Amino acid sequence: MHTDNIIHKSEAITDLFELINSDRFPHALLLKGAVGRGKLAIARSLAQYLVCTDRKDGDSCGKCSHCHKSLKNIHPDIHFSFPINGAKATCNDFMNDFRAFIAQNHYAIGSDWITEISEGKKAGNMTAAECNRISHIVHLKPYEADKKVILIWLPEYLGKEGNRLLKMIEEPPEETYFIFITDLPDLILGTILSRCQIVNISPIPVALIAKHVEENFNLDAETAAVVANLSDGNINEAIGMSNQVENKFLPTWIALFKSTYRGHTADISKSVSDINEFSKEEMKTFFKYCTHFLRQCMLLRHLAEDQIQLRKNEMDIATKMTAVIDDAAIHEISVMLDQASYHLERNANMKSALLSTAIKMNHILRKDALVA
Binning pLDDT at 50, 70 and 90, where does residue 367 land? Predict the structure, then answer.
């Protein structure tokens, strides 16, 4: 994978490519950071760079046979290990599906992959059999390149089976490199962590996310900014929202706020019904939009307007809202919206959950003034 697919080339990331150039790349690297920072894309780019025979300007050439195979995720010396299903299964049983999955989504996240393979069953483990497969790979000589790279995505799923890898990680064969990619380093065995050079991948700046979704998803600059602000530095979230964020979220949020503020039963019922018509993904985005809006309202109460991440039409509404809602109410409503999102993820009856949320909002917001 080319470095073009690394949206945020931070200093820590560029340093890793320089270590390859100077033959000082660690034999065990662990990339950590919150979900949605593009860690798997970074790891794949590093692996391709390691095996490329004609590196140029800090990037792999994209033309040699090694690059061609790397880009298709079929290079015989770049190996993938990841969470799977089945007590005795190995990643070989899922490899074709995995290659197709990451080819469709450069910025794949673990929860999407787990959903992909779950088929309604409990999913997500890295078995003793998979560790034995890795051991076998480690002791093979490189097939085409002069290096061998093993990418272990989400090693937090290894559990105690990770002990089987300790000797290999500590003393790998010459020109063998482990790259671990984790969302939850606290769940990884300390004995593995101690054998790795750990690099924290920082959040992707909002401006870079906005630029990416604007250029790749046919969004106007204003909508791209909304998506970027809602994503909280998570590129996967931003991509998922890019086809959902439309003008409907602001009017729907205003309608919910007004109806609960005024306490008009019929209006509350209509607002709840309108939200309940959203798809699951749209509703998830709607809740994120509302909490983002409320967060900006709180900031607006204490900071200058030029520090607020709202568009002009949103700013006009937020200014009116801040006249009738205080910090405590903003916090309470935000918590309730987060709870509604939690219920959504667990397939609750959302119409009932939304109605309960609206009634609680009314109790918090009830005042004499009206929001025009």
Answer: low
Give 125: exposed, middle or buried? Use CB within 10 Å, 0-12, 13-18, 19+.
middle
Are 220 and 214 within 8 A, CB to CB? yes
Contact 64, 71 (CB under 8 A): no
CA-based end-to-end distance of the chain: 52
Long-range contacts from 106-110, C-beta under 8 angstroms, 24+ separation: 106/1, 106/5, 106/38, 106/40, 106/41, 106/44, 107/36, 107/38, 107/40, 107/41, 107/235, 107/236, 107/239, 108/40, 108/236, 109/35, 109/36, 109/183, 109/236, 110/35, 110/83, 110/153, 110/154, 110/183
Rounded Cα distance between 124 and 85, Å, is 6
Residue 157: how many CA atoms within 13 Å on its side-chain side?
26
pTM over 0.70: yes
Measured distance CA(85)–CA(92) in Å, rounded? 12
